[in-house]
């Protein structure tokens, strides 16, 4: 199997596992688009600005603001006034959002455990090294 197909299948499997886990907790309450925003926020969640969320989602500030209002009304985000900039607000995860984040972390831990058991110690070290290098390459864009 080539790298492109492997990446595609890996992404799909992680997404499938995440959706399966959160479906018990949030599927009746959140739309796919709202889940996408929460998923994007997982990487940004500590004191996020609206503009950084919009940038992460590649949408306008107005679009992000509308989604933030929906997530706030459902109890997943809170808006906190930014004291450094009286006009701005920071987005803070609530316990509900943090619970979804914990589910995601559990999925990654489970997958890591599956890899650890399937690989030899040397293969696992090589895998981690190459995976770290791949992440560094992608984040330097």
Supply the CATH superfamily name.
Winged helix-like DNA-binding domain superfamily/Winged helix DNA-binding domain
Class by SSE composition: mainly alpha
**Number of helical segments with 4 or more residues:** 6
CATH names the topology as Arc Repressor Mutant, subunit A
The gross shape turns out to be: globular
CATH class: Mainly Alpha
> Under the CATH scheme, which architecture would be assigned?
Orthogonal Bundle
User: Low-confidence parts lasting 5 or more residues at pLDDT below 50?
Assistant: none
- SSE order, as H and E? HHEHHEEHH
The major β-sheet equals:
3 strands, antiparallel
Amount of beta strand: 5-15%
Question: What is the helix content?
Answer: over 70%
Q: Mean pLDDT, as a whole number?
A: 87
Number of domains: 1
As laid out across the biggest beta sheet, the strand order is 1-3-2
Describe this structure in words.
This protein is mainly alpha-helical and 141 residues long. The protein has one domain: Arc Repressor Mutant, subunit A. Helix content is 70%, strand content 9%. The chain contains 6 helices and 3 strands, in the order H-H-E-H-H-E-E-H-H. Strands 1-3-2 form a 3-stranded antiparallel beta sheet. The radius of gyration is 18 Å and the shape is globular. It starts with a helix and ends with a helix. The mean pLDDT is 87.
């Amino acid at each position: 199997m080539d790298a492109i197909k492997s990446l595609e299948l890996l992404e799909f499997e992680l997404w499938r596992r995440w959706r399966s886990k959160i479906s018990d907790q949030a599927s009746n309450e959140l739309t796919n688009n709202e889940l996408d925003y929460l998923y994007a926020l997982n990487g940004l969640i500590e004191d996020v600005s609206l503009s950084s969320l919009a940038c992460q989602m590649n949408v306008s500030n107005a679009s992000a603001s509308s989604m933030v209002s929906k997530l706030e009304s459902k109890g997943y985000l809170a808006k906190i006034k930014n004291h450094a900039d009286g006009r701005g607000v920071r987005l803070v995860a609530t316990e509900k959002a943090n619970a979804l984040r914990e589910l995601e972390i559990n999925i990654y831990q489970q997958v890591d455990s599956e890899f650890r058991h399937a690989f030899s110690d040397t293969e696992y070290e090589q895998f981690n090294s190459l995976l770290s290098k791949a992440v560094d390459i992608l984040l330097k864009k």
